[in-house]
Protein: Response regulator ArlR
Amino acid sequence: MEHILIVEDDEKIARVLQLELEFAEYHVTNVYTGKEALHAYNEGAFDLILLDVMLPELNGLEVLRRIRMKDKNIKVIMLTARDAVTDKVGGLDSGANDYVTKPFEIEELLARIRVHLKSAQIEAKSPSHTLQYKHIRVDTNSREVFRDDTLINLTPKEYELLVFLLEHKNQALEREQIIEKVWAYDYQGDTNVVDVYVRHLRKKLDQSKPSLISSVRGYGYMIKD
Structure:
């Protein structure tokens, strides 16, 4: 049975989430502050974390940053009451795998939880594999990215975007296609988030022009030989 950590300071919301997840046959632990979240994470073994952004003591982004210093693999879904693209990008840049904006439908949240837990299972079973393009090397087992022999620190979404582009080298990929694959669900919103992440990747990966990632005007992006 998968173990999910809920970090939510509103006890009513936390209780509803706990009941719904337990009904869906997940094992659930509830905590209510940022410090409690870090203590629970360090003491327990969790498969996924539901993490509210606005928390007492330590906010959710700081909690996530500290968790990611130790663990790049655990799946984290942020819960936020703010819907601006900059807020969403901020959470994803901190290492979140996904975000859900309050108020949300419980069925949508459960669907996203299933997607990310399935992804974690696939990653755990995957054999060692390396993707190579020019001076960029990606170890898909350790989720590490190297430029020559230098380790490049990417957020989970930056990493997944890079892998998707490399796995479809020489193919022009639509922004909507990238959103659906990298964000693991149909995204009904602003696809400018893809442009933001491509800029981040270019800044981290490109030491000189031309960029590894090519723009396809009015369409999307590609990596080409």
